[in-house]
Amino acid sequence: MNMITFMIALSATLSIALTALNFWLAQMNPDPEKLSPYECGFDPLGSARLPFSIRFFLVAILFLLFDLEIALLLPLPWATQLQTPTTTLTWTSALIIILTLGLVYEWIQGGLEWAE
């Protein structure tokens, strides 16, 4: 038996054994305390289906946008070692300028203000 087959068989056996052990040892005792919604130690006040402000979604989208910017700029130190680093730096500068202009626009429009 070669090593890959042995490792696959061992992984499958261990996974099945641990899953079966979990189902066998798990305690299924639901009570009203466990089934109630968690609200930071307080009793639930009102409906949980109240609409959120659109500002929460705007901040989440801005976070994702700038998180994507970091992911795009992460390989920059390796990209500067290419044959034409000026092209890389030009595109990087263009990306940073566009995102900075977008941030300034959001700031001027008041999209980052929590209180009106």
TrEMBL record:
- Superkingdom of origin organism: Eukaryota
Q: Which Gene3D superfamilies match?
A: NADH:ubiquinone/plastoquinone oxidoreductase, chain 3 (1.20.58.1610)
Q: Which UniProt keywords apply?
A: Electron transport, Membrane, Mitochondrion, NAD, Respiratory chain, Translocase, Transmembrane, Transmembrane helix, Transport, Ubiquinone
Q: Name one GO cellular component term.
A: NADH dehydrogenase complex
Subcellular location field: Mitochondrion membrane
Its transmembrane ranges are 52-76, 88-108
- What are the EC numbers? 7.1.1.2
Q: Which Pfam families match?
A: Oxidored_q4
Q: How does it sit in the membrane?
A: Multi-pass membrane protein
The record's catalysed reaction(s) read: a ubiquinone + NADH + 5 H(+)(in) = a ubiquinol + NAD(+) + 4 H(+)(out)
GO molecular function, one example? NADH dehydrogenase (ubiquinone) activity
Q: What class of enzyme is it?
A: translocase
Role according to the record: Core subunit of the mitochondrial membrane respiratory chain NADH dehydrogenase (Complex I) which catalyzes electron transfer from NADH through the respiratory chain, using ubiquinone as an electron acceptor. Essential for the catalytic activity of complex I.
Q: Which family does the entry's similarity section mention?
A: Belongs to the complex I subunit 3 family.
- Can you name this protein? NADH-ubiquinone oxidoreductase chain 3
Protein's organism: Sinosuthora webbiana
